[in-house]
């Protein structure tokens, strides 16, 4: 990544490994994160930097550290690089007017569409009704507005799909199916639901997991990225789990009839490689399936492993020490059974026909057991695709786990968090351009008390909501402008008055232009097959 591009990563610097304060990710709570680094430690979200280099021409939100985290985005980046199918999907709860925070997600969707992905945008109307108590009339009005902004910013509805949850029968059916693999205790643990939680709210969670997997249902299983704020990560984690739970087969690697966990497998593989290498001409033997004849028995491997010193190098070390004892036990119990690398397919949810078909489809030597089949001549990857193929041919989903990317929340213009209940703290995409101008002019800054001090010490761009506006929105693709504002600010060459004036003018221009484009998009929206006049009956809403 370009070292010159200033990044908005105040906070992620801390790497001491201990969360500083309690962090919770609550999809319906207040969206603020004290320290983004905590999300890596606590929830296993990965730093976006780790995959950034795999993206050929990253979006400016990626370049500037606004997109700070991900789950398995490598799969999407790889598909993108190899011109293979991939998808992106995100959803919007129509609870108010779209604002500049939503624009981040709109832009992320549009960018993935430009990169050749199948892109989906949805209106989470069921969620808005059940979790936020919005009436159907309010929902219709806001839904229209979200869609207009998404279209105005460049979403191509011919190439992608826009839908509302309540109108998508396939999503409902998928939700029903996925719901059969989730239970209330889990919702309690993930979302803090309790006996008071309304049942439709729970149904809206199931619907969201269906949204997330829907791109893989309409066409074929493929890498799919869900661009969202980190508050949505609980949904992503649950969906990644459910995607696995509905799979027909589970593929693992094994060496003998018994099961090994990952750490044990590492050790047994080491034993096998050492011994198979000794006994034949197979070199290190690790990738070489021709050495199947080598006569290594479990008991030999146990003997080897006993004297093996687990290298005290990496963090896995502790795992491996514990695993050594259990692996030894298993190998000894295996006695004279030959040790032979193989892939194992477990029947997890398959129909009998599908399991039969899988057995039939395995090429080369295989051994069939109750509930699983071992294949001796397949690589792990070949086995994974075979399992998916058979599953799909037999009415299964064959889902891949969805990926995600997470963006930072923008700081409110009045300091603190951006909140729809404090109009001065955020800018709506529907704000009168003059109001937008005024809000920026009156924003809090990272400036010093006096001009003199500012010249001497420089401003604190990393703490400044106005700098954020440049980085997240106003500078657009122009890294030069973002870099200039940043360096002039921190070097004391820029004073807040002028800086805000420039930002305010850019904001006014942006809003003027955006609103013109929204007007133009009206026609496009009319032509789409989206019902924005729902005649649903229901309750009026809670306010
Ligand atoms: N829960 C999301 C929100 O509060 C909206 C949403 C519904 C969504 N389905 C989704 C987001 C699927 C991403 C993917 O805004
Ligand atoms: Fe913020 Fe600009 Fe002032 Fe720097 S000069 S603190 S970026 S308003």
Give a short summary of the structure.
The protein is of the alpha/beta class and 543 residues long.
Give a description of the structure.
The protein has 543 residues and is α/β, with parallel strands linked by helices. It folds into 3 domains: 84-248 and 401-407, Rossmann fold (3-Layer(aba) Sandwich), CATH 3.40.50; 250-393, no CATH class; 423-526, Tyrosyl-Transfer RNA Synthetase (Orthogonal Bundle), CATH 1.10.240.10. It is built from 21 helices and 11 strands. The two termini are 47 Å apart. Iron/sulfur cluster is lined by residues 445-447, 459, 461, 464, 466-467, 485, 489, 494, 496, 499-500. Tryptophan binds at residues 27, 89-93, 122, 124, 127, 208, 211-212, 226, 228, 232.
């Amino acid at each position: 990544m370009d070292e010159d591009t200033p990044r908005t990563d105040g906070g992620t610097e801390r790497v001491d490994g201990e969360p500083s304060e309690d962090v919770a990710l609550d999809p319906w709570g207040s969206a603020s994160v004290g320290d983004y680094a905590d999300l890596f430690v606590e929830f296993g979200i990965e730093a976006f930097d780790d995959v950034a280099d795999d993206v050929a021409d990253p979006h400016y939100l990626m370049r500037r550290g606004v997109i700070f985290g991900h789950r398995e985005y490598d799969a999407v980046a790889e598909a993108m690089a190899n011109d293979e199918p991939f998808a992106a999907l995100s959803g919007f709860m129509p609870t108010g007017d779209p604002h500049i925070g939503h624009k981040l997600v709109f832009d992320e969707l549009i960018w993935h569409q430009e990169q050749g992905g199948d892109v989906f945008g949805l209106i989470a109307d069921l969620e808005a009704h059940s979790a936020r108590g919005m009436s159907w009339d309010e929902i219709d009005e806001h839904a229209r507005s979200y869609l207009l902004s998404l279209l105005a910013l460049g979403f191509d509805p011919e190439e992608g799909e826009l839908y509302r949850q309540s109108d998508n029968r396939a999503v409902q059916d998928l939700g029903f199916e996925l719901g059969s693999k989730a239970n209330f205790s889990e919702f309690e643990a993930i979302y803090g639901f309790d006996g008071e939680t309304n049942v439709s709210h729970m149904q809206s969670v199931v619907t969201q997991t269906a949204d997330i997997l829907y791109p893989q249902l309409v066409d074929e299983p493929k890498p799919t990225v869900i661009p969202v704020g980190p508050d949505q990560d609980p949904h992503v984690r649950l969906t990644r789990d459910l995607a696995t739970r509905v799979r027909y087969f589970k593929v693992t690697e094994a060496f003998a009839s018994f099961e090994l966990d990952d750490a044990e497998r590492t050790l047994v593989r080491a034993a096998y490689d050492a011994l198979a290498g000794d006994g034949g001409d197979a070199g290190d033997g690790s990738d070489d399936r021709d050495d199947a004849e080598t006569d290594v028995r479990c008991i030999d491997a146990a003997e080897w492993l006993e004297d093996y010193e687990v290298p005290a190098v990496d963090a896995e070390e502790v795992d491996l020490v514990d695993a050594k004892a259990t692996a030894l036990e298993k190998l000894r119990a295996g006695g004279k059974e030959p040790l032979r690398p193989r892939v194992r397919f477990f029947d997890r949810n398959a129909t009998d026909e599908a399991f039969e078909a899988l057995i039939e489809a395995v090429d080369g030597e295989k051994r069939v057991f109750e509930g699983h089949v071992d294949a001796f001549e397949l690589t792990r990857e070949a086995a994974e695709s075979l399992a998916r193929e058979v599953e799909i041919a037999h009415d299964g989903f064959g889902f891949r786990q969805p990926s995600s990317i997470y963006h930072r929340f923008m700081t409110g213009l009045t300091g603190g968090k951006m909140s729809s209940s404090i109009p001065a703290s955020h800018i709506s995409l529907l704000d009168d351009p003059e109001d937008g101008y005024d809000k920026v002019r009156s924003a809090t800054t990272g400036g010093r008390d006096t001009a003199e001090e500012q010249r001497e010490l420089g401003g604190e761009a990393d703490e400044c909501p106005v700098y954020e506006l440049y980085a997240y929105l106003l500078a657009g693709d122009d890294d030069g402008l973002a870099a200039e504002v940043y360096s002039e600010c921190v070097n004391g060459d820029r004073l807040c008055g002028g800086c805000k004036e420039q930002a305010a003018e850019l904001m006014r221009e942006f809003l003027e232009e955006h609103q013109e484009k929204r007007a133009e998009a009206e026609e496009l929206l009319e032509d789409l097959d989206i019902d924005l006049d729902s005649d649903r009956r229901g309750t009026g809403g809670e306010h």
